Amino acid sequence: MTGGTVLCVDEEGSVADTATVVDDETEFEPLTRTTAAGAREAIRDHPVVCVVTEYSLPDGSGLEVVEALREHAPQTPCVLFTDARPGEIDTDSFEELIVEYLDRTLPSAGEELAFVVDDLVAHSAQVGFLAPDDEASRLAALAEYEVDELPITESFERITDLIADHFDIEVAFVGLIEEDEENFLACTGADWDSLTREDTICTHSMLQEDVMVVEDARTDDRFSSNEQLLNLGIQFYAGANVTTPDGHVIGQVCALDDEPRQLSEPERERLQKYADTVTEILELRQSLRDARTATAEVEP
Description:
With 300 residues, the chain is of the alpha/beta class. It has helices spanning 15-25, 36-45, 62-72, 109-126, 135-143, 153-167, 202-205, 227-232, 265-298, and strands at 5-9, 29-33, 50-53, 56-57, 60-61, 78-82, 100-103, 171-177, 181-188, 194-196, 212-214, 236-243, 249-257. It has two domains: 5-126, Response regulator (Rossmann fold, 3-Layer(aba) Sandwich); 135-298, GAF domain (Beta-Lactamase, 2-Layer Sandwich). The protein is built from nine helices and 13 strands. The strands form three sheets. Strands 10-9-8-13-12-11 form a six-stranded antiparallel sheet. Strands 2-1-3-6-7 form a five-stranded parallel sheet, with helices on both faces. A hairpin with a 5-residue loop joins strand 12 (236-243) and strand 13 (249-257). Helix 1 (15-25) crosses helix 4 and helix 6 (153-167) runs antiparallel to helix 9. The longest helix has 34 residues, at 265-298.
């Protein structure tokens, strides 16, 4: 049993050396790819705890690999392990990417790579959760809905009932992601009120633009050691963003099951439509409440 998978991306003649360092000097298992395209495919298909990539690849650059990783799994650390000097690396198109740089020509490069990978993965595991870049404004947008004052529970319960029936799954819920926890406004198939953000897959899902699907949490390195998820019996997860008109992700609409599942593209689109309906209900209820408040203020 390893501590997870490290994706090693390098040219054909060098990738085996990088993989050997990971295999021999760390607790992780290497997965190798020799092109940027192959690395992007591996990122989509395999849960990884870290990516180690050369800058110069036959069909692109290592920063393209990092960009793909950030889109798919923003919390996963990455190391640019290269003989390219910092001044030779074109960062103009990748200004917001955060990546560790390590010179592979150093005499102790292998030892340093093993140390850096171990340290990055350990630090990543210690972080409770990653917040989106707009966290402050996102929380302000959520607060504006005054959810406790809105008559939305029955509407959301109908939505979760529909999701559970349509997808034939064990649990469906509508959750709003507060500062430290996710509060469930409606939940079909389970009696859940809230979970801390570090225990929810939604913490990861909210960072992705598209519907996030975890076919089997037990085999996904990001969640396989999450005791709370194991205790709740969650294996399959699909989550769609509840997004305000201003673009702030304030919650999730999710489908869960206690066995591995897959979700087709039409099914993903359907789940997102349910999430969009949640936003529409919130907007409508808040508008009606604001109108009533305005009317009450002008009445004698």
